[in-house]
TrEMBL record, chain A:
Keywords: Cytoplasm. This is N-alpha-acetyltransferase 35, NatC auxiliary subunit. It is found in: Cytoplasm. Its main location: cytoplasm.
UniProtKB/TrEMBL annotation, chain B:
CDD domains: NAT_SF (cd04301). GO terms for cellular component: NatC complex. SUPFAM superfamilies: Acyl-CoA N-acyltransferases (Nat) (SSF55729). It comes from the Eukaryota. Keywords: Acyltransferase, Transferase. GO terms for molecular function: protein-N-terminal amino-acid acetyltransferase activity. Belongs to the acetyltransferase family. MAK3 subfamily. Pfam families: Acetyltransf_1. The keyword Protein biosynthesis does not apply. Residues 12-171 form the N-acetyltransferase domain. InterPro entries: Acyl_CoA_acyltransferase, GNAT_dom, NAA30-like. The keyword Nucleotide-binding does not apply. This is N-alpha-acetyltransferase mak3.
Length: 784, 196
């Protein structure tokens, strides 16, 4: 079905492109006395107003019903955005017979403490619904008190009240007002933070405020004072029931602490501990709120869809989003914990650990909310200063030295000091390296930005990034060749003594390594997002294994040349302490990277073999697909990789051979899978012994690294069980030496179960399960 | 999905006809009603006219022969897709629905096949569509015909649910190859992947 809203533009998936601003809210709807931008002057010099209604009607009469008059720019999205005037389901301004526009709810009526709690808890639900991606119009803006505060637009703190022009205030209403003010100010900050970073409007979040101002002009200190006063009044006995008074107080404290959390996180240079403190506080307050939720009495009349009619929008009336309090609580719990955890990114050690932090943080389930994800982006990139204190050059040089150039004169910061000698070789080197950094910086930072997006977008964005990295690689190669000449680098034959001699090509190697990693992530995200059909899995795991094998080989090449270059340095002098450290770090990186490539490759190989067997046995059967051929689908599936020159996409014939393995028998395939699994399990065991330095994962990331590894390890064990069941069933049926297994699965009385991503040990490892069934209805099923 | 009111057997051979503008007053209200039934938000009449007025020949209806009432409908468009190089002629299945009593008898499959045939005849390079990730019947139907999921779209619909983009390639794509980087010249060796 076509989308029922304007989706974020899909064609611009590159991150470096500036964001599309949200479409301007149309000048439609009732403004309820709100000062709106004035209409264009109807009469001015040289403009003669003319009533065209007569002509319009006449022209319209010549049309057949259903004829469409449009210019070439009228798109599908324009038609989706159009509404039918006077249709009550679409026209929010349309009143039914006897219906009035006014609410009929008296915001000045006194409220009991229980009711205030009920309203606040409902507001909490709406606030969370907004965080989850629903618009304000269906959430917070359905509340009559919020509407009363925002309309007409207040200019002073006194005006920011749903009870205006009435001296004195019911103290319970004052508590509710204080809560609302703190809430709206927080929403203002959240909205601005999100708008300032990369996110997808409507898909991740709706920033539209429908011409309402979220108290941006009201002084925050004044709002805090209102909250303080309300808390004081609670303590001075306006509510005699201390349980109720405490419940209200904890809700006001939540508003205070949330503002604190926002304020501290705006300045990354605060100590990580002080940034963390309010998030920890919020986690505790949330528990108190959850415990006292039952004290509240809900006031459903205080929420109404009618308010939507007053918003500056052409949107049809839409129902109020109903998020349950238990779910709201769960989401806030995650949000506050994530807010606390994300500050750990500020503790920088090296670029690879930074990348791993972001990768693992974003892989959390549920994925952190968009506000937290934009907070992470702001910690990382705000003002082009990384983590508030590092230059882009600093982390890029860290990265180059870790991956490809440890202890290299190319990265020696003292080269810069030769500025005064522009012809010196050192200055030439510094200059070339700087040009390269400028060329590659955007692509490099975009990797971090990409993984801060929602999971679907990460995959889509990376499909474009790999083309970008291909260009970086080609440009880097030119720099590499010049550098080899200027540094008199000796060529080396690799991988064999008989191979043609080559230079290290370090910078292009670095780019190629990123490209390979990104390609691997794209394939893995495909498993995670359930993109592949069951009968595609054998081929896709084979391709994953090919990519990791290529990466492994590339890392070996990098290592060989980097070691050779260091040996050359060692011929003339000893390494400095800093250089020793760099070399050790790089050695850790290579080792970890090789091991990771090896286990991924082997587990992928094993799963590929298992799926081939399941295909042979008829346990995974492809649908008939009368309109498609295997080759056409290969083209579709591999489209993102088809444009990449290196690694070159295997031809369809190669792929087919690999995904079917026609020369191997079922028994041979199962043997191959078993030995690959043994290798993978050995590798996982070795990686489980990694410390923080070896894994480039620190603190909470180290825990995640271990958990991730454990998930993969368990997947390997589960794959072993599947093989065992297959062997057993086959052994019972046919003698192992003669069978080909072809289509024999039906008689095995087995059925394949493919688990939904969230049910797997690891989302990227789709281990097929086997269940016994009466032999009639065996076949593949995608259990969800 | 309400299975209860389903017909055991189709009443008689259904009639499949191509939409044309002259049928608007007779069938547009029924088309809208049928499509809207499974939607949380109605599309305005302009959305239907946008498709039907421009690509009526890519809209097919299944009719009950006894009273010519509408049983199922498919609505599509076919346009060049400019943001791609090389340019592709892309078909798009916008809407598909079968009246719940008539489901499970291949009506939707027959409609989709007619639409694919019509678009292939007009030289379409590919056909795409989106469907809610939880709409298993729709996904099975398309995948059975040869569509592949190409990407997942986060929170694609107003109700917050995500979608899959499905693609059916009808002609082989032209791929422009880029220059081969020097690292590619290294010969492929046996790679040692055995864990330490
Ligand atoms: C999705 C939808 C269009 C399917 O309509 P349908 O007519 O039931 O579809 P089909 O009959 O072609 O296919 C459904 C099943 O009937 C089976 N079938 C196909 N031909 C058949 C035949 N001649 N006789 C009996 N069964 C048949 C199919 O194998 C399929 O089985 P499956 O459930 O194992 O996949 C329908 O459910 C619908 O209108 N849903 C609401 C709107 C919607 O979701 N639209 C799609 C959005 S893109």
């Amino acid at each position: 079905m076509i989308p029922d809203r304007n989706p974020a533009p899909e064609e611009f998936e590159g991150l470096s492109l500036s964001d599309q601003p949200p479409p301007p809210a149309e000048q439609y709807g009732l403004y309820g006395g709100e000062p709106v931008p004035p209409p264009p002057p109807i009469s001015s010099d040289g403009v003669v107003a003319l009533d065209v209604m007569g002509r319009f009607r006449k022209a319209a009469k010549t049309l057949e019903p259903g004829e469409l008059i449009k210019d070439g720019y009228f798109s599908l999205m324009d038609s989706v955005a159009s509404i039918e005037i006077m249709d009550p389901k679409m026209d929010s301004g349309c009143l039914g017979p006897g219906e009035t526009l006014e609410e009929g709810y008296d915001v000045t009526r006194p409220l009991r403490a229980e009711q205030v709690i009920g309203i606040i808890d409902q507001l909490l639900c709406h606030e969370m619904a907004w965080h989850l991606g629903y618009p304000l119009s269906q959430t917070l803006f359905t509340n009559v008190y919020i509407e009363g505060i925002l309309m007409p637009m207040p200019n002073t703190i006194e005006q920011a009240d749903f009870v205006r022009d009435q001296p004195g205030h019911d103290p319970m209403l004052a508590v509710l007002r204080a809560y609302c003010l703190g809430l709206l100010k927080a929403c203002y900050h959240v909205n601005e933070r999100i708008k300032g970073e990369h996110y997808y409007e409507e898909e991740d979040f709706v920033t539209n405020t429908y011409h309402r101002s979220l108290l941006d002009r009201i002084d925050e200190a004044a709002i805090r004072q209102v909250i303080t006063n309300a808390r004081t009044s609670l303590r001075s006995g306006i509510c005699t029931d201390t349980l109720l008074a405490d419940a209200l107080d904890s809700r006001l404290r939540l508003r205070e602490e949330f503002l604190n959390a926002i304020q501290l996180s705006e300045d990354r240079n605060n100590s990580a501990d002080s940034i963390k403190a309010p998030w920890i506080e919020l986690e505790q307050i949330l528990e108190t709120i959850n415990r006292s939720h039952a004290l509240g009495t809900s006031v459903p009349e205080a929420f109404s869809t009618k308010i939507q009619r007053k918003l500056a929008s052409t949107m049809p009336p839409r129902p109020i989003v109903q998020l349950r309090f238990e779910d709201t609580y769960g989401h806030f719990k995650h949000m506050f914990a994530d807010g606390r955890e994300v500050t750990d990114v500020l503790a920088y050690t090296d670029s690879e650990s930074l990348l791993n932090f972001v990768l693992h943080f974003q892989a959390k389930r549920p994925q952190p909310l968009v506000y937290i994800r934009t907070l992470l982006q702001s910690y990382l990139f705000k003002d082009m200063i990384i983590l508030g204190r590092l230059s882009i050059r600093h982390i890029m040089d860290d990265d180059l030295s870790t991956l490809v150039l440890p202890a290299s004169p190319l990265l020696d910061p003292t080269n810069d000091a030769f500025e005064s000698a522009p012809h010196s070789p050192q200055f030439q080197l510094a200059n070339r390296m700087e040009l390269f950094r400028q060329r590659a910086a955007q692509s490099y930072l975009d990797v971090f930005r990409a993984i801060c997006q929602n999971r679907c977008r990460i995959r889509r964005t990376l499909c474009h990034s790999i083309q970008d990295w291909e260009n970086v690689q080609l440009d880097a190669e030119e720099v590499d060749q010049v550098l080899a000449l200027e540094t008199n680098e000796a060529a080396m034959s690799w991988p064999r003594p008989t191979s043609p001699p080559s230079h290290s090509l370090s910078l292009s190697s670095w780019a190629y390594l990123y490209k390979l990693k990104l390609m691997q992530w794209i394939v893995q995200l495909g498993f995670e997002l359930d993109i592949y059909a069951p009968d595609e899995l054998a081929g896709m795991y084979w391709y994953l294994s090919l990519l990791t094998r290529t990466r492994s080989q590339h890392v070996q090449r990098i290592q060989a040349f980097a070691e050779k270059n260091v040996r050359e340095v060692l011929r003339t002098r000893k390494l400095s302490e800093e250089e020793e450290m760099q070399f050790d770090r790089a050695a850790n990186y290579w080792r970890g990277s090789l091991l990771d490539a090896a286990v991924t490759c082997q587990l992928a190989d094993a799963l590929s073999s298992i799926y081939i067997v399941l295909g042979r046995l008829g346990l995974v059967t492809p649908p008939p697909r009368p309109y498609s051929t295997d080759e056409m689908r290969y083209n579709v599936r591999m489209k993102p990789f088809g444009v990449i020159g290196l690694p070159e996409l295997p031809t369809y014939e190669t792929f087919k051979e690999a995904a079917l393995q026609p020369k191997l028998s079922v028994a041979q395939l199962l043997d191959a899978a078993t030995s690959a699994l043994e290798g993978a399990k050995r590798g996982f065991k070795a990686m489980e012994r990694f410390d923080e330095d070896e894994s480039f994962a620190r603190g909470v990331t180290y825990e995640r690294f271990k958990a991730d590894l454990a998930g993969s390890h368990k997947s390997a064990i589960a794959a072993g069980l599947t093989i065992m069941m297959l062997r057993k069933a086959l052994g019972e049926k046919v003698s192992r030496n003669t069978e080909t297994g072809e289509g024999g699965g039906k008689e095995l009385g087995l059925k394949v179960e493919i688990k939904a991503p969230s049910q797997r040990y690891h989302e990227c490892w789709v281990v097929p399960g086997l269940v016994k069934v009466p032999s009639k209805d065996s076949g593949a099923s995608t259990g969800n | 999905m309400a299975e209860s009111g389903r017909l055991e057997k189709l009443p008689a051979e259904l009639r499949y006809i191509q939409y044309e503008h002259g049928l608007e007053s007779q069938y547009l209200p029924a088309i809208r009603a049928l499509i809207s039934k499974d939607l949380s938000e109605p599309y305005s009449i302009y959305v239907y006219r946008y498709f039907l007025y421009q690509w009526g020949h890519l809209c097919f209806m299944a009719l009950d022969p006894t009273d010519s009432s509408l049983v199922g409908v498919i609505i599509c468009k076919l346009e060049t897709h400019a943001s791609h190089s090389p340019m592709t002629l892309r078909g798009y299945i916008a809407m598909l629905a079968v009246s719940s009593a008539y489901r499970g008898h291949g009506v939707a499959t027959a409609l989709v096949k007619r639409a694919i045939d019509a678009m292939a005849l007009r030289d379409a390079d590919e056909i795409v569509l989106e469907t809610e990730e939880s709409n298993i019947p729709a996904m099975r139907l398309y995948e059975r015909l040869g569509f592949l999921r190409s990407k997942k779209l986060h929170r694609y619909y107003l109700n917050g649910s995500s979608a899959y983009r499905l693609v059916l390639q009808l002609k082989p794509p032209e791929i422009e190859r880029v220059v081969e980087p020097a690292l590619g010249e290294a010969e492929v060796s046996e790679v040692v992947v055995a864990a330490s």
